[in-house]
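TA notes, week 10

Several of you asked for a full example with nothing omitted. So below is the full record: structure tokens for the whole chain, then the designed sequence directly under it. When grading your own attempts, check the secondary structure regions first.
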């Protein structure tokens, strides 16, 4: 089941010619989820081919570089004759402001737009096989991060063992894999644990938005496959990171270690660094516990497939 991340905007508060303000698109089994929408997000979606089939928009906070793309995106959806509803999730206490932004052009969208507030520990969205949870972040305004966490998958079915036990090929295989015991013609009962392995973990993505290093990020997901963390500054402006409620690349890597993250994406790079991210990478890789190649500064338009940890497809 494909799970793909497209980085639409990776800049800090001020965009550059190479980097758009914040936006991350996640596609899972045909469903589109958007995390933040800085100005120009709708153009980035066209440019990088994600399409506009977004069912949920998750807003981390209401600073302009994370939300000013919302009016344009909604207008583009309207012009494309959208009828499906759009759910927008925003931190507690910001619904009124976000509603004003949605209606900023003086015309309400012709399709339903539902705005809900979320806080630390809330399940913003529950789907059939995964959920998106909000967690507390440490920025200088009301803010949250989001963790997309898939449900555990069933253990592997041992067909060879089932046949050894006399289970006939057919519906009884499925019943066993679903957790149901089956009775054979001779009266023998075969239980699922005899032929089904331990449950296997799903995949997870954690997106912090703007934040100082925060303990809640560590608790958001256990060993996430991808941590997308604020890394606005390198070590040379560590004091500035603290003062403005951001993180350095080194701090992002320290949090990644504590979460057990398999990969780390360094996001929200300040325009002060222009196209120079070598220090970000070097400093993060100095402390990251995993393979240094799994730490990266994504470029706008970069896509990433998230595989299952056991290599399943």
């Amino acid at each position: 089941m494909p799970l793909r991340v497209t980085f639409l905007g990776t800049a800090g508060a001020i965009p550059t010619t190479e980097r758009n303000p914040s936006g991350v698109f996640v596609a899972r089994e045909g469903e589109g989820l958007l995390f933040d929408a800085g100005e120009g997000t709708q153009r980035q979606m066209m440019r990088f081919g994600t399409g506009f089939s977004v069912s949920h928009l998750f807003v981390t906070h209401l600073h302009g570089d994370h939300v000013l793309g919302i009016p344009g995106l909604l207008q583009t959806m309207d012009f494309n004759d959208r009828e499906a509803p759009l759910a927008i999730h925003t931190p507690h206490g910001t619904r009124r402001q976000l509603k004003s932004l949605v209606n900023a052009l003086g015309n309400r969208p012709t399709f339903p737009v539902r705005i809900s507030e979320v806080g630390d520990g809330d399940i913003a969205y529950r789907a059939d096989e995964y959920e998106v949870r909000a967690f507390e972040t440490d920025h200088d305004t009301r803010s949250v991060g989001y963790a997309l966490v898939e449900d555990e998958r069933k253990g592997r079915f041992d067909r060879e063992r089932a046949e050894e036990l006399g289970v006939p090929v057919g519906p009884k295989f499925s019943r066993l894999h679903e957790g149901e015991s089956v009775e054979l013609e001779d009266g023998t009962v075969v239980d699922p644990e005899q032929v089904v392995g331990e449950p296997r973990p799903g995949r997870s993505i954690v997106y912090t938005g703007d934040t100082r290093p925060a303990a809640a990020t560590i608790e958001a997901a256990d060993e996430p496959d991808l941590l997308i963390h604020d890394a606005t500054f390198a070590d040379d402006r560590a004091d500035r990171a603290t003062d403005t409620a951001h993180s350095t690349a080194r701090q992002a890597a320290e949090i990644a270690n504590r979460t057990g993250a398999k990969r780390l994406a360094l996001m929200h790079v300040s325009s002060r660094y222009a196209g120079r991210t070598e220090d970000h990478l070097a400093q993060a890789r100095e402390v990251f516990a995993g393979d240094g190649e799994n730490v990266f500064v994504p470029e706008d338009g970069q896509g990433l497939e998230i595989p299952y940890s056991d290599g399943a497809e």
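DSSP finds ten helices and 16 strands in the chain. Use that as a sanity check on your answer.
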